[in-house]
């Protein structure tokens, strides 16, 4: 098939499977097929995959696949379903996106003018460059491998008296600014990727957290609970957490050897 590429952002699929080694007539071969599926996906430029053995009993294998070509995402899911010991447990589809609450160049200029800063144009140019980098990182992220990968879907409430989408834009932006300040306290400890899924899946956003310390993930999620955005408007789906590894190490982790 010809590539199918979104006009903005990259496709993101989270795939979770239960693994039943005893169902395969040849677990070793099944492990090789598993690794081949990942190798094929990342063979194309800008396609990345992170794998994890899931903690707890919700699933055994977690996969985060990210890249521009939706056909390759489909092919990966199909290839994994064909590996005999794998049973689908959960999936989530989303796109990388830039927050609608990010400042524009005009807003940066107005803010700096109101502050009465000197060398206005130089400050504006630096801020715009920094903003461009943030947009690039959110639309086309390069994900490092950390020890722990956590994922959960979320939506904003539409309840009577707590309808996020009835709030004026400026109020939503102010609330999200405070929400972001909480997350920035964990810079260097937790890497967060928020992807958009409105109209694509049952929830409106997917949140991926990468860290080397499981406690850091617990802390940032708990800390966010007290922020107004989460306390009044946050609605969450299942939380899935796993220990990452290279695809080549998965067969041993999953008993396919």
Give a quick precis of the structure.
The chain is of the alpha+beta class.
Structure description:
This protein has 257 residues and is α+β, with helices and mostly antiparallel strands. The chain has a domain of 96 residues: Alpha-Beta Plaits (2-Layer Sandwich), CATH 3.30.70. 38% of the residues lie in helices and 27% in strands. It contains eight helices and eleven strands. An eight-stranded antiparallel barrel has the order 1-3-2-11-5-9-8-4. Strands 6-7 form a two-stranded antiparallel sheet. β2 and β3 form a beta hairpin. α1 packs antiparallel against α2 and α3 packs antiparallel against α4. The longest helix has 20 residues. It is globular, with a radius of gyration of 20 Å. The model has no long low-confidence stretch (mean pLDDT 95).
- Please state the second-level CATH architecture of one domain: 2-Layer Sandwich
pLDDT under 50 segments (min length 5)?
Answer: none
From the alpha-carbon coordinates, what is the Rg to the nearest angstrom?
20 Å
Write down the overall geometry.
Answer: globular
Structural class: alpha+beta
Topology:
Elements: E1 11-19, H1 27-42, E2 48-54, E3 61-67, H2 70-82, E4 86-96, H3 105-115, H4 120-139, E5 148-156, E6 158-159, E7 162-163, H5 169-184, E8 190-196, E9 205-211, H6 214-225, H7 228-233, E10 234-236, E11 240-245, H8 250-253
Antiparallel strand pairs: 1-3, 1-4, 2-3, 2-11, 4-8, 5-9, 5-10, 5-11, 6-7, 8-9
Helix pairs in contact: 1-2, 3-4
